[in-house]
Amino acid sequence: MTLLNKDHFIELDRQDPLAQFREEFELPEEHIYLNGNSLGVMPKASKEKARKVVEQEWGQGLIRSWNTADWIHLPRRVGDKIAGIVGAAPGEVIVADSTSVNLFKLAAAALRLRPNRHKILSEPGNFPTDLYILQGLERFMDGKVHLHTQPRQEILDAIDDDTALVVLTHVHYKSGAMFNMAEITRKAHEKGALILWDLSHSTGAVPVALNNVEADFAIGCGYKYLNGGPGAPGFLFVAQRHQAELEQPLSGWFGHANAFAMSDTYEPAPGIERTLCGTTPVVGASLLEVGVDIMAAADMGRIREKSLKMSELFIALVEQRLADHGFGLATSKRPAERGSQVSLTHEHGFAIMQALIKRNIVGDFRAPDIMRFGFTPLYVRYIDIWNCIDALAQIMEIAEWDRPEFKKITAVT
Amino acid sequence: MTLLNKDHFIELDRQDPLAQFREEFELPEEHIYLNGNSLGVMPKASKEKARKVVEQEWGQGLIRSWNTADWIHLPRRVGDKIAGIVGAAPGEVIVADSTSVNLFKLAAAALRLRPNRHKILSEPGNFPTDLYILQGLERFMDGKVHLHTQPRQEILDAIDDDTALVVLTHVHYKSGAMFNMAEITRKAHEKGALILWDLSHSTGAVPVALNNVEADFAIGCGYKYLNGGPGAPGFLFVAQRHQAELEQPLSGWFGHANAFAMSDTYEPAPGIERTLCGTTPVVGASLLEVGVDIMAAADMGRIREKSLKMSELFIALVEQRLADHGFGLATSKRPAERGSQVSLTHEHGFAIMQALIKRNIVGDFRAPDIMRFGFTPLYVRYIDIWNCIDALAQIMEIAEWDRPEFKKITAVT
Q1: Quick check: B252 contacting A, CB < 8 Å?
Q2: Which value, in Å, is the radius of gyration of the alpha carbons in chain B?
Q3: What is the rounded CA–CA span in Å between residue A145 and residue A164?
Q4: For the segment B162-214, what is each residue's pLDDT rounded down to a tens digit?
Q5: Considering its fold, how many domains does chain B have in total?
Q6: Tell me, what CATH number does A376's domain have?
Q7: Do B284 and B180 belong to one domain?
Q8: Which of A162, A180, A401, B299 lies in disulfide reach of A355, CB 3.0 to 4.6 Å?
Q9: Whole-number pLDDT of residue A413
Q10: For residue B1, what pLDDT is reported?
């Protein structure tokens, strides 16, 4: 590759077919935000939506808004929109609870569909909450199932006749590495196992075709690439073919076939609604809908194209301008194995990231040595990539990171 | 009792020491809202708080707000404030998930503390989601425990040596009947059982003294008397003495001793935080804090005094003005057995309630024949009680309820 220069990035922005989407978001002034993989930015329309749901629907409509503002169908309505983003059909996705809670529900339900098998398979280093929830399930089932983790290169071979469920995160939160969803799903099914994909770092970031690959279950996050707001509810997917027999343990009243009959006996709703538990988090789900609407209006092929171009250019600039500064690349250079982020390793990664943030360029750090840079094509520009690496080069050249203020570890970054 | 007249109610409002709290809430114009037991009204300050958390903390602060806006301690901070309302100590209450999910966590955890017992005891007609969640737990423990329900008059005798956990709702959602928390808790402990109180219709409505009665566990709702907004997160209480040994199945990353170390192995946080699961629903929990702050500033003794006076007057007016119209009283006339609502029965209850709502007097209906009227002393006036019964008397006298428009059953009321 010839040497890249700033003009090239300016030109790419000029030609970017997604450029107008940036107008839909409110970014803090003078910021380059490369952390949408952790918490997506605020759509401008979220401000008006928050006012509407709080001041009008709650404040004025009160209890009637369950009907008049259709709060009652909010989880399904937003779920159907997300279905279009992840290659599912209407009625296969619903918004509910948190990603962690949704994993518990679906993993427990999956185990009941494979009662004579004893193994849940995942990988070490999977997103922590996924492993923690599966460990909770393991304890709760008193040894009837066990969680087995196998490094990703050996995952295919580890799926065996005793495997009830495979739980993997499609795009790795730390490295940005992407699994081949079709291949692993096929292998799981060959062995009679079920599979659950965590799409937290995929939804709105890379094309996902749940029904094409015949996935069984999936969960995902509302506050990353979907821009649903801090702690937005999660979502879950159950393939139509599993719904009628699905029994999940968190059988709360919103999952009942007729909640307002107020009967003493649980009877699951016929479809995806049986995965609901408690009362819908109305404000959070309403804000999520704003982000989902924007994402649903964008072309996922174009998002992927821009995302890959951005990560490729980022990697090229790292090689071109940071070669002497001790960075490693934790993300694959093969596009098919890469989500929408690039992770660099550096022994002083924490301090370097703090120095970058001080310059209003926001990525994040994950222990022990990972610096993450997320690319969200709807609001990040090519020039942001150039400016990020330019700042990083300056920080390294004058060892700007080597100051006490950048080494102080705070609660969360 | 001598005949009550309107002036008496006006005078009571004039002398009401809680009267100024009504200014803190925004009520729809010309409405009498007697449904705060279902969905509390909006505090005026919630509007500004919604703007702050959405536009500033999310929109401008983005990921840094976990530290700068202290999102990370939000569940505990609001929990500590709720602790003061329910007679618990700081560090015993936390805000999380929904009431239903919280019940699942704590009921499952309680069963692990009584591994050789097999019975969960509740009452028929308990709030549906409580029974549904316990049924879910029963199914998922594959017959190791069973849910037994016993009518409330026989509850004390039904607690036996095989009872692991008693789960009761302190104030009944339908009848407004209130259990004697001290007596039942004592009996449970005498038999070696644990007890979990559902405070959904108690918190902010009646005095609750969890530690005085030595309760083990409790759950509660954020969107009723606490005025936290539609689908606000719930809260849960674990007595200090149980925390160190508490193992709950929904062991997500926010309950980890050190979530951001991102280790592969779950290790529970030392205190109440171990009951957390997924990422905090920041917007919902922030709005809840507004309602909790108002409630924490009010004197619960005065709230109870006004609440009882209102329900007593309501019952007296029903007897005085509606005696010939076929209403029954589903709520006890003994103050100690009454929460903060009065429920009437009527065979045409649904249509009568619709006719009332048409007149902007909002209670609600629960099948088959219950009309509920909730009294929320911080924003309901005595004159509202008079006007409600006055309207009801008119509706009955001219059979206004007997119109097709009032008999059409819509999704939720």
Answers
A1: yes
A2: 22
A3: 9
A4: 999 999 999 999 999 999 999 999 999 999 999 999 999 999 999 999 999 99
A5: 2
A6: 3.90.1150.10
A7: yes
A8: A401
A9: 41
A10: 58
Contact (Cβ atoms closer than 8 angstroms) between residue A365 and residue A371: yes
B227 at the A interface (CB within 8 A)? no
**Residue A181 at interface with chain B, using a CB cutoff of 8 Å:** no
Residue from B311, B279, B285 nearest B226 by CA:
B285
State whether the Cα torsion A94-A95-A99-A105 is positive or negative.
negative
> pLDDT band for position A1 (50/70/90)?
low
Give the C-alpha distances (Å, rounded to integers) separating B388 from A89, B274, B364.
48, 46, 13
Dump pLDDT digits (tens) for B80-115: 999 999 999 999 999 999 999 999 999 999 999 999
* Predicted local confidence at residue B17, as pLDDT: 97
Is B376 annotated as a binding-site member?
no
Same domain, yes or no, for A394 and A261?
no
* Same domain membership, residue B362 and residue B285: no
Which positions of B are catalytic?
A: 127, 198, 223-224, 372
Residues B279 and B351 in one domain: no
Question: Nearest Cβ partner of A63 from B35, B72, B98?
Answer: B35
Q: Are residues A272 and A329 in the same domain?
A: no
- Interchain CB contact of A32 with B (< 8 Å): no
Whole-number pLDDT of residue A410? 60
* Alpha carbons A130 and A100: distance in angstroms, whole number: 7
In chain A, residues with a C-beta closer than 8 Å to the C-beta of B273 are none
Contacts of A98 in chain B (CB under 8 A): 97, 252, 277-279, 281
| Last-in-domain residue among A297, A312, A329 | A297
Answer whether A360 touches B (CB < 8 Å).
Answer: no
Residue at B56 is within a domain: no
Q: Which long-range CB contacts under 8 A does B368-372 form with residues at least 24 apart?
A: B369/B345, B370/B174, B370/B175, B370/B330, B370/B343, B370/B344, B370/B345, B371/B343, B371/B344, B371/B345, B371/B346, B372/B35, B372/B37, B372/B38, B372/B174, B372/B176, B372/B341, B372/B342, B372/B343
In a domain, A287, yes or no: yes
Flag whether residue A60 sits within 8 Å of chain B, measured between CB atoms: yes
Question: Which of B263, B297, B331 represents a domain boundary (last residue)?
Answer: B297
**β-bridge partners, B150:** none
pLDDT tens digits, A269-326: 999 999 999 999 999 999 999 999 999 999 999 999 999 999 999 999 999 999 999 9
Q: B20 and B95: one domain?
A: no
Note whether A26 contacts B: Cβ–Cβ < 8 A: yes
Whole-number percent of chain B with pLDDT over 70: 99
**Interchain proximity B39–A46, CB inside 8 Å:** no
Q: B298-318 pLDDT, tens per residue?
A: 999 999 999 999 999 999 999
pLDDT of residue B90: 98
The answer to whether residue A56 is domain-embedded is no
User: Same domain, yes or no, for A231 and A345?
Assistant: no
- Is the Cβ pair A128, B262 closer than 8 Å? yes
**Token digits for A355?**
């120095």
pLDDT band at B2 (very low <50, low <70, confident <90, very high): confident
**Between chains, do B281 and A277 touch, taking CB under 8 Å as contact?**
no
Q: Which domain holds residue A22?
A: 6-43+300-406
- What per-residue confidence (pLDDT) applies to B292? 98
Task: Tokens for A296, please give them.
Answer: 């649903």
Among B67, B253, B284, select the one facing A410 at the smallest CB separation. B67
Q: Provide the 10 A C-beta neighbour count for residue A55.
A: 17
Measure CB to CB from residue B282 to each of A135, A231, A256 and give the nearest one: A231
Q: Confirm whether B412 is domain-assigned.
A: no
CA distance A262 to chain B (A): 6
Which CATH number characterizes residue A112's domain? 3.40.640.10
CB contact under 8 A, A249 and B51: no
CB contact under 8 A, B281 and A33: no
Select from B60, B66, B137 the Cβ nearest to the Cβ of A412.
Answer: B66
ipTM for this model: 0.97
Whether A98 and B252 lie within 8 Å, measured CB to CB: yes
Which of B41, B131, B229 is nearest residue A283 as measured by Cβ atoms?
Answer: B229
Under a CB-based contact definition with an 8 Å cutoff, are residues B127 and B155 in contact?
no
Out of A127, A350, A365, A406, the active site residue is: A127
Residue of chain B nearest A268, judged by CA positions:
B132
